[in-house]
Each structure stands twice: as C-alpha cells, then as structure tokens.
C-alpha cells in the first residue's frame, strides 16, 4: 500500500502528470502568446515557466515587470494571453466554439491603433476559422469594422433599448 501511495504521490505531484502535460503544452502556449503580441504590435515578448511565472523582455531586450508597462500595453499582454489560451484549448482539447462574444474587449486603455490590431485578429478568426463574433463595445469607431449587423443600444431613463 505504501508503494502504491508513493507512486500516486509522484504521478499527482509537481513532477508527475501535471508537470508532463504543462511542459508539453508550454512551448505551444508561449509561441502563441508571442505571435499575438507581435500582431498587437506590443513592445515585448513573454515566456511562462511550468509554474506560470512570466519573464517579460521589453523592446530594449531587458527583463521587466508587467507593471513597468502602461495600462494599454498591459491590456495587449492580457489579450494576447487570452487568445493564446483559446488557441491552446482548441489545439489540445479538440474542442472549439464557432461563436465568440467579447464584451468591452476594446474598451478602456487601448488607443485607436490597438483597437485596429484586435479587430484584425477578430476578423481573421471570422474569415479563417469560420467564427461568428459579436463585439460589445462603447467605442463608436468599431462600427466601421463591422462586417454584419450592428446593433446600437442606448439608455433612456435608466433603461437600455435598441435604437
């Protein structure tokens, strides 16, 4: 019984199956994150280790903290990680959804150039992966990028209504 418990401890421990799976996917994940960072014109690259501790290298080839970046730059890092996780799930899980709904993805601290980079990624997902994407945003300029119906909602007297 002790031998079986020792084997289970190894299999389920830090150096067991979990570590094997994470290390197997980590290279793909890091590659995907950096591909998205390039597409977002981010001024950094990032590498995660098996504990998901990040090492961020800025455009001057110096290691730096996530918090050394502006809020817009951090938003790009976050979005690149989100898209990389979605791609990894599709690759490893053999499961994909053909519908994406993004609420306020481009709102907040992104400039108009950053918005365009994200819209380009979403349009590629529509065109190359057959996805239908709904983008909920307060940014009026996003309407120019729409390839389908645009629904406008406005608040009147505290109630939201379709215009």
Sheet with most strands: strand arrangement: 1-2-3
The unreliable regions are none
Using only CA atoms, what is the Rg?
20 Å
Mean pLDDT: 88
Kindly estimate the percentage of residues that lie in beta strands according to DSSP: 15-25%
Q: How many beta strands in the DSSP annotation?
A: 7
Shape: globular
Structural category is alpha+beta
Q: What does the main sheet amount to?
A: 3 strands, antiparallel
Query: Given the structure, what is the number of helices?
Result: 4
C-alpha termini separation:
69 Å
Sketch the topology as an H/E string, one letter per element.
HHEEEHEHEEE
Helix content: 40-55%
Keywords:
163 residues; three-stranded antiparallel β-sheet; two-stranded parallel sheet; 4 helices; alpha+beta
Report what the structure shows.
It contains four helices and seven strands, in the order ααβββαβαβββ. The protein has 163 residues and is α+β, with helices and mostly antiparallel strands. A hairpin with a 2-residue loop joins strand 6 and strand 7 (159-162). Helix 2 packs across helix 3 (71-93). The N and C termini lie far apart (69 Å). The relative contact order is 0.10.
């Amino acid at each position: 019984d002790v031998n079986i418990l020792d084997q289970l401890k190894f299999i389920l421990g830090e150096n067991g199956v979990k570590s094997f799976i994470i290390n197997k996917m980590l290279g793909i994940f890091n590659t995907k994150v950096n591909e998205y960072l390039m597409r977002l014109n981010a001024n950094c690259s990032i590498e995660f280790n098996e504990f998901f501790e990040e090492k961020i290298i800025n455009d001057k080839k110096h290691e730096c903290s996530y918090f050394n970046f502006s809020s817009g730059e951090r938003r790009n890092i976050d979005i690149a990680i989100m898209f990389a996780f979605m791609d990894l799930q599709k690759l490893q899980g053999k499961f994909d959804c053909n519908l994406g709904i993004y609420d306020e993805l481009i709102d907040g601290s992104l400039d108009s150039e950053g918005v365009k980079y994200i819209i380009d990624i979403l349009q590629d997902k529509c065109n190359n992966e057959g996805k239908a994407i709904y983008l909920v945003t307060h940014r009026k300029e996003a309407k120019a990028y729409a390839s389908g119906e645009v629904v406008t909602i406005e608040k009147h007297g505290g109630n939201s209504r379709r215009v």
